[in-house]
Every structure is written in structure tokens, then in C-alpha cells.
Amino acid sequence: MAGPGLRGRRVAARPGLVGRTRRLTRAMEEALVPLLLLTGTLLLCAGLRRWLRAGGPAALELVCCFQLCACTHELWLLGVVGRVPAALSLSLTYLMTLAHTWTCAGALLSPTGALQQLAADRASVGATGRALSCQMLGAAGARLWAMALRGLPVSALHGRAGVQCPSNLRTGLWHGAGVEMACAFTLHSTLYLLPAARPQHRPHLMALVITAMVYAAGPLTGAMFNPAVALSLNFFCKETNISDNMFVYWLGPVAGMILSVALFDHIFPTLKRLAGGGGTVTVKMD
């Protein structure tokens, strides 16, 4: 039979457990509608890809960048406005990254990706220009789509006439640009190393890297490291400064991409040639 002290500890612990259970239940209820809207967005984009199949790479970039930005809007609403537990928010980030990887195979999904192809002589200036134009159009369209969904009275997070659009930059300007540069460098370096991994592991490795960067850089800059996503989320907000956005969310990721290209396409091959190996760098991932 439990003594008075043990019974007291159980009684004291029960309110905390009940509170956590209630918070988790409330978070799941808040996440239900955004999850349905995310699923609907993925299905819509699947239909658009099938319908615009004849449009080639440009149409793929347009639809996939729309999908990425629209889903990021919903995740932002859930994580920032809804303030769901970090574990749930990061889990959704991981799952949505897998969804984008599986459904948008062949798409660059980022202006820095298009510029990386140009810098590596894998794409022409014309093809890069078309990809950039389609990515920005997709980002702007996703903004309109997200605002339309946000106005629907379907949940506690939606149907609000004046959901605030604050700046995601919560640190100094140079620090924020450095964070975005580091994230972009990590992302593009991962893309260089990814072919060394087994094909079935690549989507999960990419999702793990992106989720880790969102966890680390999210509280500082929102962890966008994609100029198209930043355009869709930040540049249309009245509470943000366009020049600051361009410096942090455009120049930062572009600088990170340039560093990655310099390292993997120039510095590593040069070092290997100087060592007498010649050829290109091969990185093995055990």
C-alpha cells in the first residue's frame, strides 16, 4: 500500500501529465486541417504535372516550386502561428521533404540550384533564365494560393482576417545572411555527395539534412535557404524590408552555393591533381 508521500507525488504529477496530454491533443486537432490542405495541395500539383507534362522542364519547375512554397506556407502557419510542438513540426518537415523529393524528381526547386547548373556548365543561359522565371512565378502563385486557403474558415488557424506576416529574421543582418549562406552551402554540398549513397537512401538523407537545418536555423532566419521560398513567404509582407530580405535570403544562399561549387568543382579536383591522382573527386559514404 502506497504511503502518503508517494500518493502526494502521484497527485502532483497527474496535473502535469494531464496538461501535456491536453496540449498534444490540441496540437493534433490544429494539425488535422493543415494536413488535409497539404494533402490537397500535393494532389492538385500531381494533376497539374500530368496536365502540363508536354511543357517539359519549365512546366515541372513551375508546378514543383508552387508545391514547395505552398506547402511551406502551411507548415509556417502551423509551426509559427499555431505553435505546435517542435517534434510534430519537424516530423512534418521531414515528411514533406520526402514528398517533394519523390514527386518532383528532375526539378531543381531553387534558383540557387539553377545557378549551380549554370556555374557548372550543365545548363545554358537561356535554360537557366527559363527555370528562374518559372520558379519565381510558382513562388508568387503559391503566395496567392496560401492566402486564399488562409482566408477559409476551416480551422482555428484559418479564416482570420488579419493573420500577421512578421519578418522571419530574428537576428542581425550579417548574422542572418551568414546563417542562410551556411544552410545553402550545406544543402548544395549534400547534393554533390548524394550520388555516393544508395538510391533508396538518398531521399531520407536529404530530408534529414533539411530537417536538421530547419531545427538549427529556424529560430534565427526561418531556415529558408531558397530564394523562391523567401520570395513567397517574406517579400510580400508589409512588416519586412525588401533590401534586408534580398541581402539575407537571396545573396546569402547564392554565396553559399558559390562556395560549394568552388569547393567541389575546383578546389578538390585541383588538390587531387596536385597529389598526382588526376580526374574528379569521389567521396564514399559508408
Structure description:
The protein is an all-alpha fold. It has 9 helices and no strands. The chain has helices at residues 4-51, 56-81, 86-103, 111-119, 125-150, 173-193, 202-221, 227-233, 242-274. The longest helix is centred in the N-terminal third of the chain and has 48 residues, at 4-51. The protein starts with a helix and ends in a 12-residue tail after the last helix. The model is unreliable at 6-13 and 277-286 (pLDDT under 50).
Shape: globular
Q: How many individual helices?
A: 9
Helix content: over 70%
What fraction of residues sit in β-strands? under 5%
Count of individual beta strands: 0
Rg over C-alpha atoms, rounded to the nearest angstrom:
22 Å
Mean pLDDT over the full residue set: 85
**Poorly predicted residue ranges:** 6-13, 277-286
Largest sheet: none
The rounded distance between the terminal residues' Cα atoms is 55 Å
Query: Structural class from helices and strands?
Result: mainly alpha
What's the order of the H and E elements?
Answer: HHHHHHHHH
Secondary-structure blueprint:
Layout: H1 4-51, H2 56-81, H3 86-103, H4 111-119, H5 125-150, H6 173-193, H7 202-221, H8 227-233, H9 242-274
Helix pairs in contact: 1-2, 2-3, 2-5, 2-8, 3-7, 4-5, 4-9, 5-8, 6-7, 6-9
Concise summary:
By secondary structure, the protein is mainly α. The chain has nine helices and no strands. The C terminus is likely disordered.
List keywords for this structure.
single chain, 286 residues, mainly alpha, 9 helices, globular
